[in-house]
Structure formats: C-alpha cells, structure tokens
Amino acid sequence: xxxxxxxxxxxxxxxxxxxxxxxxxxxxxxxxxxxxxxxxxxxxxxxxxxxxxxxxxxxxxxxxxxxxxxxxxxxxxxxxxxxxxxxxxxxxxxxxxxxxxxxxxxxxxxxxxxxxxxxxxxxxxxxxxxxxxxxxxxxxxxxxxxxxxxxxxxxxxxxxxxxxxxxxxxxxxxxxxxxxxxxxxxxxxxxxxxxxxxxxxxxxxxxxxxxxxxxxxxxxxxxxxxxxxxxxxxxxxxxxxxxxxxxxxxxxxxxxxxxxxxxxxxxxxxxxxxxxxxxxxxxxxxxxxxxxxxxxxxxxxxxxxxxxxxxxxxxxxxxxxxxxxxxxxxxxxxxxxxxxxxxxxxxxxxxxxxxxxxxxxxxxxxxxxxx
Length: 371
Description:
16-stranded antiparallel beta barrel, mainly beta
C-alpha cells in the first residue's frame, strides 16, 4: 500500500511538471501565382519582359518551427524557438540553406520582459509591415520601391543594390520590455566575432548590427519608431584583414522608420516615413521615402486595400538622383482563423536623368494557411 501511494505521488508530480512545460509545432504555408512585367530593369535589356511564376511567401515567408516554454516558478519561464524557412513551390530550404535560418534562440521571460540569445529576427524587420497597405506583400507599393522595406517583388529597381538591410542577426542578444500602457520596446545587438569576411546582409552574418523599435498599440491607434545601424567587417576585396570598409565606402549605414495607423471603424488610414543614411555604405548618400495607405472593411471577411509609395535617393558622385514611385490595389478574404486568400496589382517606376525609366508591374493571387 505504501509503495502504491509513493508511485501515485511520483506520477502526480510528473504530471504537474509536464503541465508546466510545452512544445508546439507550428508553421505558415504561403503560396501565390503571379505575373510580373518589367521594362528597362536593372541588369536586363530595354525590352519588356513578362514572367509568370508560382512562388512562395508573398505575404509571410513559408516556414515550420518548434517553440516551447518551461515554467521555472516565480513568474519566470525558459523559452525557445527554432524556425526553418522553405519554399512552398519547390520545397527547397531558404535563408542560404540554414537548418533554422529564420530564427534559433533560447532565453528567459518574466516580469522584466524577455531576453533571448542566438540567431534572431531584428526589431527593424519585425515591424516593417505593421502599417503597410496590401499586407506588406509582393504587391505592396512600399515593398517594391522603399529601401526601408524588404524587397518581395522582382527587384527591377536598384533600391537593394549590394545587400539591402539585414533582416536577421547571428550571435545576437535581443531584449523586449513588458507591455507598458500599450508601449513595447525591443533592442537587438549582434556581436562582431571577427570571423566573417562579408558585410551585413539579409541573413545578418558578419559585422555588427544594432537594431531597436518602440511600438505603441492601444485602442484605434498604433505606431512604430524603428532604427537600425550596420557596421561591416572586412568585406571581400575591400580593406585590410580585420578592418572595416575602406576607400569611398567608409561609413556605417543606418535606417530609420516612423509609421502609424488609425482605425476609424470601416476604414483604417496608414502612413509612414523612412530614411537611409550612407546608402550601401557610401558616405553622405541618403534616401528619403514616404507611403500612404487605406484599408476598407467591406465585410467581416473581406478587406480591400490601396496605397502609394515614393522614394528618392540624393545624387552622389557615382550616380544621379533616383526616384521611385508605385501604387497598389488589392484585397484579403478571410476563410477561417487560419486560412485566407489574397490578391492584388502593383505598378512602379524608377526615373534617373538621361536614362530611360525602369518600369514594373505585378499581378498576383495567393493563399495562406497557418498551423
């Protein structure tokens, strides 16, 4: 009898421990059919080129992951997230084939906030689409012309020459504050371990990156202020070993974003401003950009979107003043809590003195499912 009671006590304790820990398998499947037309595009002929594709990740990158938490008591928890990106069109690994290329971290969460260590998504990237019309997708005007936006489209303009801003950081520490009356601050820093030979890029390896955001969301108002500074380390073929950029490419590059929205009920108005200093690490090369958008709630399931975006690069010693403009129209139809359909049209133009205009347009329809 005594042994039975002991066994029951062990089982009860084991059950309590298991109840305090959890591991979740999750993912996003996002695929779309699209047609893009380009003319005088970067690295292409002057002839008009039309391409029809079945592609992956128009709204959100397709991925699967495992995340978990363990209750340590006293309001403190261990957390982790392992997230792998792949293409729904081919099944091929994304993020240069890394096993957990989107994120891979472990950390602690409690009343003080959340701190994690590993490969992380940077705060500047996390909040990119918060106030963008047309879902921050491949048919978003902002995505296709602004340097402060990740490029989802055909990349016919030279807005992301070299590498574009870093989306993720290796060897990183990220801290987020608790929600304080609607405000949440996040800061991330990647260590320069001086083992890489390339500048910061979309996968964030090499150099130092400091990235921060302050997000406010309460009632009908939301907004974000985000900043990111990237310091390269020993780019290939530039400068001596162990040094930063040399010669004409002498400066860190930085990104600033300020955006917000207001929910009037049937209509949500959105606006944003972006600035890049030392574009592509070229000293005094600057970009200023703007975007406006509206979401119209046609029904409980259907939202129609429209927006415009404009971006201008100041003239430098190597290139004249570049201007990019675009507009977008589209919509989203919610089928369930985990599935929605989307579609839209985007058209953009880039102008440079004494050069033919580069033009592009995209028509796309897709579906996203979360599990």
